[in-house]
Write the structure tokens for this entry.
Amino acid sequence: DNTIGLTNLFTRDVPISHDGDGGDFSSWTEVVKDSGVENLTIMSSGYGVENPTELLGSTLMLGWINYIQRSQQFDIILIDTPPSLGFPDSSVLANSLGAKMILIIRAGKTRRDLTLRLIERFSQIKVDIAGVVLNQVNPRDENMYGYDYTLYYAD
């Protein structure tokens, strides 16, 4: 069910409570869901909006993230965004929050040149890449386990 989530916090479609810093925030606990996995809580995106990138880069988004971090209920906050090559959401969000990125690369599908271009784009806007996850790796594909030093020595 994606009818309740992050967008509800922006539109205040959940009960209002005071954040203690002079601003009113809707109760973020109303929009999180138990994942069924121990120590993993999920907040979905909520209903669709016309300007999602604008919302993600807003001071209200920064306020929500800071507010949730100050709650000290979470050790790590991961924000899943649409693919970085096709949508600006991840760049805007990482830049406005000062967050580090974890790139998810699909084995055998995401082209290397596009991945390198994406890394360069993040570098230009001063977004740190904390790591890369290579998913959908076929363990039977012998070509996936060779070494290639060209990335390390490329100009």
In short: The helical segments are 6-11, 52-56, 59-70, 89-97, 112-124, 150-153. The mean pLDDT is 80. The radius of gyration is 18 Å.
